[in-house]
Design the sequence.
């Protein structure tokens, strides 16, 4: 008797995929004409293969219509004669997943992202019988929002709506941005992506004529104006840029990082993935060596410090010196005055 190979786990969509698919739907919904795959890829600044995968996913759940133009070209549009809701059946776990998504996005309350999801639940409730609505009330108690350190985006709801539209349509923006501890400054920006990271929204954009990607915390956007001017898709690997981040910020000055964790906390490192290209090595004494290549000095140093004396930043030396300076400054702050 042979064992049946386990079916590989289906990959869950990440925040970038969800935001991109939402922008794709929005682009098609507002369009007067159908779009080709190439036109959609250009508008969303991604590859044709990525767009084709997104379209295949969306065709299963939304009224997308594929039409042939000529012998080979295909175009896509939204069918506004959408199927009646009574033809759609929801399982308990599917409804539960919607509530889980709502709980996860609690910190985005008051923004289009959250409100659109809330609208979905309202429509579903309007279709269900009172008995089934009672079941939904029970489901809503399964997942509880527990958000800490989040940003209140409700005052920026209109700006979030505008930046999503600008990303989908590749429109140049004027962004007045206030970096931490600095005066507000206006930038001409080409917005590329929205990133949801640790209960905060970030915009990846090219500023001015630069071809490098800059990360902007959206809650520090003081003013946003969307122009009618479109920009050409930059020749940048945005997904590759995001994958290089340890947290959210990326620079070109990558270095080889090595951290030694004591056995007391090694198990917690093995439970989670902190970076897609990380390497972990358990030592015979129970300690764990963590290695990766990164430019995120000011994100990795606080992370190492959060483990206290149970972690040691081994390399690079310049980062180790910076961490030592932090520790010496902390020791000075907590020094007991001589009596």
Sequence:
């Amino acid at each position: 008797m042979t064992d049946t190979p386990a079916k590989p786990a289906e990959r869950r969509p990440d925040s970038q995929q969800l935001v991109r698919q939402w922008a794709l739907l929005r682009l098609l919904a507002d369009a007067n004409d159908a779009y080709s795959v190439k036109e959609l890829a250009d508008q969303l600044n991604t590859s044709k293969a990525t767009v084709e995968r997104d379209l295949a996913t969306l065709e299963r759940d939304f009224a997308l219509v594929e039409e042939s133009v000529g012998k080979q070209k295909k175009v896509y549009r939204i069918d506004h004669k959408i199927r009646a809701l009574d033809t759609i059946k929801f399982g308990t776990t599917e409804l539960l997943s919607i509530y889980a998504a709502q709980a996860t996005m609690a910190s985005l309350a008051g923004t289009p992202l959250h409100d659109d999801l809330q609208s979905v639940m309202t429509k579903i409730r309007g279709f269900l019988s009172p008995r089934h609505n009672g079941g939904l009330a029970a489901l809503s108690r399964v997942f509880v929002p527990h958000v800490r350190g989040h940003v209140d985006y409700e005052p920026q709801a209109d700006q979030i709506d505008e930046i999503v539209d600008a990303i989908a349509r590749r429109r140049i923006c004027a962004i007045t941005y206030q970096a931490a501890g600095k005066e507000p400054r206006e930038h001409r920006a080409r917005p590329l992506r929205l990133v949801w990271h640790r209960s905060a929204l970030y915009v990846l954009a090219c500023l001015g004529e630069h071809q490098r990607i800059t990360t902007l915390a959206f809650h520090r956007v003081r003013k946003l104006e969307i122009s009618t001017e479109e920009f050409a898709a930059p020749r940048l690997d945005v997904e590759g840029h995001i994958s290089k981040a340890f947290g959210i910020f990326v620079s070109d000055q990558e270095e080889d990082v090595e951290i030694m964790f004591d056995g007391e906390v090694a198990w917690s490192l093995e439970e989670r993935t902190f970076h897609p290209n990380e390497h972990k090595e358990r030592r015979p004494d129970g300690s764990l060596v963590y290695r990766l290549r990164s430019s995120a000095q000011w994100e990795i140093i606080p992370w190492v410090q959060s483990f206290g004396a149970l972690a040691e930043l081994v390399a690079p030396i310049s980062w180790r010196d910076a961490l030592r300076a932090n520790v010496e400054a902390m020791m000075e702050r907590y020094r007991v005055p001589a009596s």
